[in-house]
Design a protein that fits this description.
globular, 30% helix, 9 helices, alpha/beta, 9-stranded mixed β-sheet
Length: 265
């Protein structure tokens, strides 16, 4: 399913580059850590952390996604161990990790065996990071029109699954949140970028929609064209990361520490 998005993934809402530095500072990372990225896809999260850790492992069920992750890693001269497996089926002796990450993947990993694997693989003082781009509440009309238009064509049987938030994912486990990192930024969008974003979303890929894909594209072009009459538009972006540790650590109660491009709670 996710492999159908290859070729368009760069048009989806990104993990802001400064997010990885902000998380590395918040943990903090010393540059020697062993990182495991679950549901790694084409490697956006794992490779984002490459400058801040010592070793990288990525795990995903879909072979084409791992092949693209390997290609991207090779292009930047990065070594990464890639494993094709469901989390539940991976060996308990996979290794022990200082940081386990899940980017836009925790919804699909919520099984009792996956949670047990996390506990087996995470070092005693290790951290788990759940991260995702946020939907900015800036009231941008164009965004609402884009989402509503795409939704008319979406074939999304898993939407209810994605209502599970990070804390619900870890309910009943030893893991508790101890820090949140939010980074803000912006980018310029052309109309074609939003078309490609729709085609890079699993519920509206060409493979998923078949002949309806061209009709969706025409509908999006017609709906979005008025917002691009004066050229590119600015999209405001945020990336959220929630860090978890075993129950010895909790979120601080007093205040919020601010950085230039990140909010760390």
């Amino acid at each position: 399913m996710w492999s159908e998005t290859i070729g368009y993934r760069q048009y989806r809402k990104p993990y802001l580059p400064q997010f990885f530095a902000a998380v590395a500072e918040a943990i903090p990372l010393a540059g020697q850590e062993n990182l495991l990225d679950l549901g790694c896809g084409t490697g956006e999260v794992a490779l984002g952390f490459a400058p801040y850790v010592g070793r990288l492992t990525g795990m995903d069920l879909e072979g084409p996604m791992l092949a693209e992750a390997a290609r991207k890693a090779g292009a930047i001269g990065c070594d990464i161990r890639l494993i094709q497996s469901r989390v539940e089926d991976a060996p308990a002796q996979l290794g022990h990790f200082d940081l386990i990450t899940m980017g836009r993947a925790h919804w699909y990993l919520h099984t009792s065996e996956s949670l047990r694997q996390l506990d087996r693989w995470l070092k005693p003082e290790g951290r788990i990071l759940v991260c995702r781009p946020l939907q900015n509440p800036d009231g941008a009309e164009w965004r609402e029109v884009f989402m509503a238009t795409r939704a008319q064509w979406a074939r999304d049987e898993l939407r209810q699954l994605r209502q599970l938030n990070e804390d619900q994912f870890f309910a009943g486990t030893p893991f508790v949140p101890f820090k949140r990192v939010i980074v803000h930024g912006e980018q310029q969008l052309q109309l074609e970028h939003l078309i490609f974003r729709a085609l890079g979303t699993p519920s509206t890929t060409r493979a998923r929609l078949g002949a309806d894909a061209e009709r969706m594209i025409a509908a999006l072009q017609a709906a979005m064209a008025p917002y691009f009459l004066n050229g590119p538009i600015t999209e405001h972006l945020s990336t959220l990361g929630v860090l978890y540790s075993r129950a010895a650590s909790t979120l601080p109660e007093d205040g919020v520490a601010m950085a230039e491009s990140a909010t760390v709670e």
